[in-house]
Specification:
The chain is α/β, with parallel strands linked by helices. It is built from 6 helices and 9 strands. The mean pLDDT is about 95. This is tRNA (guanine-N(1)-)-methyltransferase.
Length: about 240
C-alpha cells in the first residue's frame, strides 16, 4: 500500500520509521511519504494560510498550495490508475467517524492520501476540486477538537496499516480484539497467577478451552453492555 501525507509538519511522521510500521516500510509492505505543504508555496514567507472570507477568528489554509501538492500526488486523467484509484482523506471534526469497519475497508485500497489541516481548517474548494479527480472523505477520529490533522492521520495509519497482511506478526491476534467482532475485548491476564492479592480467574487455569471461550464471550458481552451499549448487536440487546 502507498500512503502519501500532506502536512506542514512532515517531521511529525518520522515516528513511523519505528515499530511494526517501520518494519512494514522496510519490507515494502507500506510505502509512506510525508510531503511538506510549504514546498508548494512560492512567496518568501512560504505562506499557507490567510484570513477567512466573511470574517471570524483564526486563519484558513489557502487553496493554492493544497492544489499543487495534490497535483503532485494524484494521477492526472491521462495517467488513469491501472489499479485502485486513490482515496483522499482529510481529518476533520465535521467528518464521518473513523471505525474499525472503515479501517478494514481502507486497508483493502492500494493508495491512500491524507491531508493534514491546521489553523481553523482548509478552504472548502480544496475538497471540492479534489473530488473531481479522486474519492474524498472527511473523517473524524472522535467528538473532540484537535489542533490539526496530524494526530488523527497517525491514528488512522496505525489502525489501517496493522490490518495489512504481513504487518502484524500473528494475524490471529487481529481477530480477537475490540471492535473486530463488534464487541469489546475480554480482560487479559498473564503470570503470576497471584499478584498483590489479586488472583487470575480460575477458569483461565482450568485447561477447559470450551469453558474458557464461553467465559471470554460472556465477558465481552458484559463489558460491551456496560461500557458501549451502542455497540451491542440487536440479538444481544436487553429485552425492554
Ligand atoms: C475544522 O474545524 C475546526 C474547528 C476548530 C479547530 C480546528 C482545528 N483543526 C484544523 C485542522 C484539523 C483537522 C482535524 C481536526 C480534528 C479531527 C477530530 N476528530 N478532532 N479534531 C481538527 C483540525 C478545526
Amino acid at each position: 500500500m502507498r500512503i502519501d501525507v500532506v502536512t506542514i509538519f512532515p517531521e511529525f511522521f518520522d515516528v513511523l520509521d519505528i515499530s511494526l510500521l517501520g518494519r512494514a516500510r522496510q519490507t515494502g509492505l507500506l510505502d509512506v511519504t510525508a510531503h511538506n505543504l510549504r514546498e508548494f508555496t512560492h512567496d518568501r514567507h512560504r505562506t499557507v494560510d490567510d484570513t477567512p472570507y466573511g470574517g471570524g477568528a483564526g486563519m484558513v489554509m489557502k487553496p493554492e498550495p493544497w492544489g499543487e501538492a495534490l497535483d503532485s500526488i494524484l494521477p492526472t486523467e491521462t495517467e488513469a490508475p491501472g489499479g485502485d484509484a486513490p482515496v483522499v482523506i482529510f481529518p476533520s471534526p465535521a467528518g464521518t467517524v473513523f471505525t474499525q469497519k472503515m479501517a478494514r475497508e481502507l486497508a483493502q485500497r492500494e493508495h491512500l492520501v491524507f491531508g493534514c489541516g491546521r489553523y481553523e481548517g482548509i478552504d472548502q474548494r480544496v475538497f471540492d476540486h479534489a473530488a473531481t479527480r479522486a474519492e474524498v472523505r472527511l473523517v473524524s477520529i472522535g467528538d473532540y477538537v484537535l489542533n490539526g490533522g496530524e494526530v488523527a492521520v497517525m491514528a488512522m495509519i496505525e489502525a489501517i496499516g496493522r490490518l495489512i497482511p504481513g504487518v502484524v506478526g500473528n494475524p490471529e491476534s487481529l481477530v480477537e480484539e475490540s471492535h473486530e467482532d463488534g464487541l469489546l475485548e475480554y480482560p487479559s491476564y498473564t503470570k503470576p497467577a497471584a499478584w498483590r492479592g489479586l488472583e487470575v480467574p480460575p477458569i483461565l487455569l482450568s485447561g477447559n478451552h470450551r469453558a474458557i471461550d464461553d467465559w471470554r464471550r460472556a465477558q465481552q458481552i458484559e463489558r460491551t453492555r456496560t461500557v458501549r451499549p451502542d455497540l451491542l448487536p440487536p440479538d444481544l440487546l436487553p429485552n425492554e
